[in-house]
Amino acid sequence: MSAGDFDSSVAIILKEEGGNDDDPRDPGGRTSRGITQKEWDVFTKSHSGRPSDVWKASDTDIRDIYLSNYWNPYCDELPAGMDLVFFNTSVNSGRTQAVRELQRACGVSVDGMMGMLTINAANTGDVEALIHSQCEQRRNFYRNNRNFSIYGKGWLARTDRIEASAIKLANDQPTTKHPETSKSPKAPTFTTAQPAVSPETGGGVTAGLSAIIAALQQVKDQLSGFAGTFTWVNYILLGITLVVGGYTVWAIIKRNRAQAVM
After folding, report:
1. pLDDT tens across 191-202, in order?
2. How many structural domains is the chain composed of?
3. Per the confidence metrics, is the pTM higher than 0.85?
4. Dihedral through CA 193, CA 195, CA 198, CA 199, nearest 10?
5. Could you tell me if 27 and 21 are in contact, meaning their C-beta atoms sit under 8 angstroms apart?
6. Is 225 helix (H, G, I), strand (E, B) or coil?
7. Residue 54 located in a structural domain
8. What is the helix (H) or strand (E) element at residue 36, kind and residue range?
9. What is the CATH number of the domain that holds 84?
């Protein structure tokens, strides 16, 4: 694990979360430094001697919860900067949603499961472009949230700050966390010359086209819950699946042709 990445990221998140809060409009309820009372209650069951009120939790315990519940086990598998965006999404919306948004950003199949293909796509793409794509997914999620009219302005401002911090972290640490997959700048390869891409969809996918696929996937996810209620929804879902599938095949063919030329 890269302790420096977690330390810098959790400092940013703690600053964003602020101190103690008990907003009756917030579904999270009573919180301290972004950790809810419910989370704290679970933590104290296996950590005796702690106060019952989350407002009285120590900074060390709050930090440990962030490490175990939101940073681990995936952030260490991501490039610097992308790990911060993923971490922030996990804190806001849960780990599964963070994986889904990362997968949409990378243009890979969206299933909420962090596997080798997703990790490889994150580590072989243009980091800055992927950070921007991740943050766009976050903004889209917020805009579709029922509480956007209440908290939307603050959510979007936070996303802007997270994106700026993530890009700075990426530029400060340009090398990947996986030396075996990094490429020397003196001997550039086809992989490092590509924009924000995913191996699953072919190395030639641009950030713009990837965003289209991500949008289709998001629509598909939102409609899936109505598949058993309205017959026409099934036809829409089938159409989206065919479009995404066709695009994926096209991207793989394009990548293979490019590799053949190289």
Report:
1. 333 333 333 434
2. 1
3. no
4. -20
5. no
6. coil
7. no
8. strand 35-36
9. 1.20.141.10
